[in-house]
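Deliverable D5.2: sample structural annotation.
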Amino acid sequence: MKPESRPLAVGAGVTALGLFFLVGAQTIAGETPYAGVGPRAFPTLIGAALTVLGVAFLIAVRRGMTFPEAGGPVERGTMPWILGGLAAATLAMAPLGFPVAALFLFVLTARGFGSRRWGWNVVLGAVLGVVVYYVFSRALGVSLPGGLFERW
């Protein structure tokens, strides 16, 4: 692929992903409760946002928006850390619950992006995982696997 066509491919990909979400959201079964927000609301919102951003990006590229060449070498060690975080979170979700899975994902992803502050990442990942779990499960009523936190 020619370097000048890469931004167009990115814009087309983001637009296509948005359309995929919009079409997929319409296939989700479920009743809309009295508040008007059903299971299709968030996928539709995300699909619409991605579609608008993709089209806006394509327009900007067609109008001459340019992108400077990346300056440094590509960091090849990032993806294994992120994929390891996803694998650890997936394996930990059912037995240990969402907060612990989120902790694993946060810590390993932060390491993948270059952070070597393990202690700080563990603390921040734990706080974020617990806060998100309680907001979604208690305040919004979304069922997330609690694992170790179901008793609290």
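Annotation notes: The mean pLDDT is 87. The CA atoms of residues 114 and 151 lie 35 Å apart.
The annotation will be released with the project's public dataset once the embargo ends.
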